[in-house]
Amino acid sequence: MSSEQTKTNEQTHFRTCNLCEAMCGLVIQHDGDKVLSIKGDKNDPFSKGYICPKATALQDLHEDSDRLRHPVERTANGWKEISWAEALDKVAAGIQSVQKKHGQNAFGIYLGNPNVHNLGGMLTIKHLLSSIKTRSRFSATSIDQLPHHIVSMHLFGHMLRIPVPDVNRTQYMLIIGGNPLASNGSIMTAPNMRQKLKDIKARDGKVVVIDPRRTETADIASEHHFIRPATDVLLLLAMLNEIYLQGYADKARSKNNRAVALAPEIERLADFAKDYSAESVADITGIAAIEIKRLVKEFCEAESSVCYGRMGVSVQEFGLLSQYLIMVINIVTGRLDEVGGLMFPNPAVDVVNNSGPGYLGKRHSRVSNLPDFNGDYPVVAMADEMLVEGAGQLKGFMTVAGNPVLSTPNGEKLDTAFANLEFMVAIDYFVTETSRHANIILPPVSPLERDHYDVTFNNFAVHNVAKYSKALFVKKKNAKHDWQIYLELAKRLDKKAPLATKIERRLVNTLGPKFMLDQGLKRGPYAGMTLNKLKKYPHGIDLGPLKKMLPQALKHKDKQIHLNIDFYQADLERVQAMMQDYDDKQISLIGRRHVRSNNSWLHNSYRLVKGKPRCTLMLHLETAKEYGIEDGQNVRVTSRVGSVMIVAEVTDELMPRVVSIPHGWGHGRKGVKQKIAQAHAGVSVNDLTDDTLIDQLSGNAAVNGVPVQLEAIEPKELDLDIIDSDVDSDIESGSAA
């Protein structure tokens, strides 16, 4: 049983936290429909009692008085509750009206990040997409992990065949542009990264962080090196060059490494980076040549090692090439598919064999001519597709669990675009900066009212596990799950669907996503794995450490690694241009995240936003002096697309001429219905990020390394050390109530 009677009315419920990628096990004490406490589950084989402060948000989301419980329609007099039948009928009619008048692709859809944390949503979203029948699709992927998908698609034959660091057994971890102590791991599902990194050092290993900011992760690392934003590609090219110059690639080949043997083009990599010596990139990157050479030597001579790069690498102008180089470095040094290196998870539900391999550039966006990936256009194209007139202009739109006004570049422009649509619908809990523009908002149930199994993030887990969590609370009669909303809309929009599709939808509607999950488990790699079996293990099942999976993990027909060198080598022309034009006097803006935040959507929890303001402009003392800025003073930050006023936080955490603003804030826009978030509004960094600043190779947004100007506008007004006390520590085996 997943709930046990402990007192007369008090019960214990075990589940997986679905707020981020870490999949931490929870123990939730509740009395009826009231949550009493949320603690870490010491018996969870994956997280072993660890949770972070965000776990409390499950209770806060469920109980939030601002959370919508019924569909609402925007009227001249404000929002009005309407019935589900009326709401769904009006949404279907609105979509059909736009498409009949302007064409099938004149209605667009955006899928936000929380979709992949939702079992029912993940398994049924295809029915919504196929019923709308539009090519105008966008998702958060293109302001996030898109380079990881493209590299894996090219090299391994599938966009989801992404290897992850074997952090539990490595002796040397090189982290570039990643902050897993704040993110809890990303494209690396790994709860309690603080302890995992400490464990590396405790076994005489080493953790090295490369980042323009001395992050929380850098603080506990063995060493940290500052790097100028968006120059990671130069560091990686120099490292690859040094690997060959120092003979480490030959050593890996002489050991008959399996990954090296499976990459027939690998010899060509010897020339890929030959023009990028450590000396030639030192001044631009800010990392001395002798240090680059030492890092290569240490990495290659360690008993085991792994190179990992995340958001700081992915969302900049050379995101795809940089992630390719990280993968290539792991391969040529013999670290792919080796214990302590980069390894492939083997999840109980095989998402790779249950989905297509992905594709890049089958179509291009109407206005900016950017490539689609697996049917999604880049988010940076979204506003222009709405604003620029002509055949195919977007006139209607749906957002699903997303707030792109705050989460994508040039938010003010997108805000204007949404305001000018003929019809808009949002599937969302709240009236947000984006959903306030909707004609109708359809709210799904809270996370605690739905079953959960991590279909997506088990595919990135650093240890193989499986865990099913039954819903803690039964949903109210007049509430709907996300998947029910999708199927109801599909029924109305797609009345001429093939008979097989109609039967499938009826089956899912009757049996629920649990039926689909059970089928996935039965078809998976673990014999005898079923949903009924998982239900008998409420803490989860340990399926063992990562194992070597080559060549069977490869999805190319020839079972080889396709390095696709010509595609990536063509991008070196842009790299050369960047080196020639680089301005080391320019102020560069980067983002940052906090363990108490999750993008834009946890700021309505007082427990998570209390304390000193976190939405500040971090800058180095040297930069502050140059611009006459004092700690706590208001500063105007201006980019090509906009300007914000923000409080300065002078610190030695950043290298000079780099400034940082966290993303996800900016809740002061008129019409937002989130009281706590509005009281802690902050500013939106995406009112500064530029929708024309992109990774040309992939179409991914480049929100790190944005050129900005600074202006001190008035004397010091705010003392950052007052307001509330703020406790930022992670919580291990403790209460988050």
UniProtKB/TrEMBL annotation:
> What's an example of a GO molecular-function annotation for this chain?
oxidoreductase activity
Q: Does the keyword Oxidoreductase apply?
A: yes
Does the keyword field hold Iron-sulfur? Answer: yes
Cofactor(s) needed, names only, are:
Mo-bis(molybdopterin guanine dinucleotide)
Tell me any Pfam family this protein matches. Molydop_binding
Per UniProt, residues of the 4Fe-4S Mo/W bis-MGD-type domain are 10-66
Q: Which PROSITE patterns match?
A: 4FE4S_MOW_BIS_MGD, MOLYBDOPTERIN_PROK_3
Keywords noted in UniProt: Iron, Iron-sulfur, Metal-binding, Molybdenum, Oxidoreductase
- Protein family: Belongs to the prokaryotic molybdopterin-containing oxidoreductase family.
Instruction: Report the PANTHER family cross-referenced here.
Output: ASSIMILATORY NITRATE REDUCTASE CATALYTIC SUBUNIT, TRIMETHYLAMINE-N-OXIDE REDUCTASE
Q: Spell out the protein name for this chain.
A: Anaerobic selenocysteine-containing dehydrogenase
**Species name for this entry?**
Psychrobacter luti
